[in-house]
Amino acid sequence: MQAMQAGESRPGNVAGQWSSWTAGICILIGAVFGLALVGTQAGLLSDEGFHGAQIWHMYAGNWEILDNITMIPTYHAVLALVAQALHFYHDQMHRTVTLVGALSLPWIGWYMLVRQMPAEAGRRVLQLWYFPLLFPFYFMMYTDAWAAAAVLATAMCALSGRLLWAGVAGAIAFVLRQDTIIWSALMLWLVMLDGVKLEHWRAMLRRLLLNTLCKAWPLLLLLGVVVAFVIWNKGVAVGDRSFHQEGVNPGNIYSFLIWSWVIFLPHNLQAVPRILDLMARRPAVVLMLLAGFLLYMGTYTNPHPYNQEHLRWWLHNELLYWLTQSFTFRVLAFLPVAWMVLTACVTRMPDARLNWLYPAAIASAAMHPLIEPRYYVPALLLFVLWRPLMSERWENFALIYGILMSAFMLFGSVTRLFFI
């Protein structure tokens, strides 16, 4: 798991620079600052109004799912039960409980990174914590931070051989956000591939079958339960089903790639020499990019009512407005789309199995009819954890860039200049 890209230099001994204590202090500083900043604002922020209403109803003894809630209200039930136990109800308390749960995310990341790249764990876990698309939601009444932590716990348990706990973590992730099931499916597939070699097809199938029945059965059982739930529920969403029906939206793929390019700008910049080398060695890549451009221009859509121009206060809707209204902007936007794809092509994961993250990420984005950057968070966090090391300079740049972007996202959201 510590393999590196050709042309990249391994950082020196960074354990002293980025120890667990250093990382922990930096995480706590961000946690205290973020919670205090959100607490200065009167009222609820964006969709906190929907989640707050569900929590209040449960706190008051009404356990019905409100019509504007799409996920199973497990998160809301936990906050309501905490408020009942303390005999105290306040929005800032709910945010604090959310933050306490969110702090499990860097702990899980640290556990995974210490096994994978111990000298780099401190700095990488800070990159994980200061992740711009997720950082503001540590301090708000949203399910995303808890769901992301549960997805990482599923990956941690699955890849360390604790398959029963992987099934439990995957189930927790599902009842927090139903769309996380795709990551349990990915972990199932990775466990199935453990030790599989592309040799004789009978030996390969035998290994796949043994891995599935003897090791991965908790995750397989979870997928079966989810299928039964979807059939019984007549869909994935609960509550607000009319605007969250199942479907495939190719526009979400392009949005995912653009946001990924912005978030991972340092990685895209450091990949430029390898991208140019790839294009020089394989001229067919240029033809594939041309075909990709035609596909992109021919399949881009933005049909969802929640993604239209009357909701341009959301940053992702502002992006979609220009992609939809301006032909020139849409053409130029293919540059980050193609750049991100090429960066992925020249970024080989330390374990070949982990390259399955790429198609899973695309599928996860496409399966949502609503274009929403928060849906991309689990895939991008897994990339942060699994990607190979860069040089010392680029790793520091990625950390500083992530902290600045996180502060920008939090400040804009809290002051109501925009929302992610």
Structure report:
- By secondary structure, this protein is mainly alpha-helical.
- Helices cover 65% and strands 0% of the residues.
- It contains 20 helices and no strands.
- Helix 1 (20-39) runs antiparallel to helix 4, helix 5 packs antiparallel against helix 6 (121-129) and helix 6 runs parallel beside helix 20.
- The two termini are 33 Å apart.
- Mean pLDDT is 90; it is low at 1-16.
Short description:
The protein has 420 residues and is an all-alpha fold. Helix content is 65%, strand content 0%.
Tally of strands = 0
Supply the helix-strand structural class. mainly alpha
Largest sheet: none
Shape: globular
| Strand proportion | under 5%
How helix-rich are the residues, as a percent range? 55-70%
Helix count from the secondary structure assignment:
20
Please provide the ordered H/E string of secondary-structure elements.
HHHHHHHHHHHHHHHHHHHH
- Rg: 21 Å
Average pLDDT for all residues: 90
Spatial gap, N to C terminus: 33 Å
List keywords for this structure.
single chain, 420 residues, globular, mainly alpha, 20 helices, disordered N terminus, 65% helix
